[in-house]
Amino acid sequence: MNSSGVKTDLEAKNFSISLGGKExxxxxxxxxxxxxxxxxxxxxxxxxxxxxxxxxxxxxxxxGELEIEGMEHNRFRQKDLARLVAYVPQADSRMIPFxxxxxxxxxxxxxxxxxxxxxxxxxxxxxxxxxRTNTAEFAGRRISTxxxxxxxxxxxxxxxxxxxxxxxxxxxxxxxxxNRQNEILALMASVNKEIGVTILAVAHDLNHAVLETDRVxxxxxxxxxxxxxxxxxxxxxxxxxxxxxxxxxxDHPLEKISMIVPGTSRRD
Length: 268
Description:
By secondary structure, the chain is an alpha/beta fold. The protein has a domain at 8-95 and 164-261: Rossmann fold (3-Layer(aba) Sandwich), CATH 3.40.50.300. The chain contains nine helices and twelve strands. A six-stranded mixed β-sheet has the order 6-7-8-3-9-10, with helices on both faces. Strands 2-1-4-5 form a four-stranded antiparallel β-sheet, with helices on one face. Strand 9 and strand 10 form a beta hairpin.
């Protein structure tokens, strides 16, 4: 909880980590309030995915501190951490040899005792997750048979079934067509606004990020180089400082914010 009485779900305090002898994150500091929706942006190789994996302990080590609800994240038992934090990967082509329903029931593990079968409460949680994400029709299908967009919705259903109120999403709309992107973004917005899930999402598409989120954190070469509102980052000077290239901006026709549009090398 910060000085104004608002609960803080995630906080990095001068956090640094090296992997394979290379420093990936350098003295990263920022915090995320309960119920906030924050995007992490920045150039390729800036350390965005590494930061998510460190918060969820998929990667360990480093110096400084990462805190979950005000407690150093390494002090949590894994099951206790999983009750609070869910990691949602990209909708890649990994082979998961389970049906959707089996996979979602497995995601209830933080609430199960060892070797205990799924309870009525667990099955209800899975059913509600499938209903919210419109994935009930896939319940009996193997995840490997689903399209990228269908698989991403299942991963979001898994986070719902897990019952965590802090979500870490790694580029959730990558590789998806416009229709599926809009579906996933709408799902994320609904769980944030209607359920109060705190979201920290790595975003490749800055235009989508600034339209959906409350705040944007930018990493560059492992350091935080911007932490502010969507409107503040969509300035030519701020973007060139982050991406080392001039970007063309135009006013959004419906929102009071600028958008990035492609430039061209063509000359008449």
